[in-house]
Specification:
Blueprint lengths: L4 H11 L23 E5 L27 E5 L12 E13 L6 E3 L7 E6 L4 H10 L3 E6 L16 E5 H7 L7 E10 L1 H13 L7
Parallel strand pairs: 1-2, 2-3, 5-6, 5-7, 7-8
Antiparallel strand pairs: 3-4, 3-8
């Protein structure tokens, strides 16, 4: 973690000189950081919104920046039909296992909550996908939307009944969440072709140390 990704990478390499692959999440705009492969993840439902950069739209850089990347991963894309454009790879998130925020070893599955009123909480980029996933699994949910990267407070979780949230939100809420609070654990299924491209890139590349 750190604002200066280059210095963080150097510190990591100093601590672990045996490391020869660095993966930086959300690092596309850190141009000082040497990179051998760039992967962009976009929402399959919303794509690029209105196409404008912040604050007029959702983009951090113009769409033309995509001409420089190596792969575009579409979250919510179809893994079977092959309908995506060349250079695009589908990804789907799925899961039915729930962990209790107060006691991590206490687990359940979504069908255990069938017939109950559920308060579903999400402070992510596209909350609609989370809510729809819970409904697709048969849950009756009351939606509670928060901004992406929301800094939760105890007052945000004061609802009568069961709370279900994303794993991302649970990290911020575990310290003060009510006892009947759960997060949905999900796994990412990604087009295997992307894995092949990553491996080929590593084979071709002389893995460079951060400059």
């Amino acid at each position: 973690m750190g604002v200066d990704r280059v210095e963080v990478a150097r510190a990591l390499l100093k601590a672990r000189p045996d490391c020869n692959i660095l993966i930086s999440d959300d690092g596309l705009q850190h141009y000082r950081l040497q990179r051998d492969m760039e992967v962009v993840v976009v929402d399959g439902m919303r794509r690029f919104g209105n196409g404008y950069c912040l604050p007029a739209g959702p983009m951090r850089e113009p769409i033309g920046r995509l001409r420089q990347i190596d792969a575009l991963v579409v979250n919510g894309g179809d893994l079977v039909s092959g309908s995506l454009a060349p250079g695009e790879y589908a990804m789907a998130l799925s899961g039915s296992l729930l962990h209790n925020l107060k006691e991590e070893s206490n687990v359940a599955v979504t069908r255990d909550f069938l017939g109950k009123k559920i308060h579903a909480i999400a402070g992510i980029g596209n909350p609609a996908r989370f809510f729809e996933d819970l409904r697709r699994q048969g849950l009756d949910v009351i939606e509670h939307l928060f901004p992406d990267h929301h800094a939760y407070q105890p007052a945000d979780l004061q609802y009568a009944g069961t709370l279900i949230m994303t794993e991302k939100d649970a990290v911020k809420c575990a310290a003060f969440a009510p006892a009947d609070s759960w997060y949905l654990a999900v796994d990412a299924e990604v087009d295997v072709a992307l894995g092949h491209q990553v491996l080929e890139t590593l084979k071709r590349s002389d893995i460079k140390k951060v400059r």
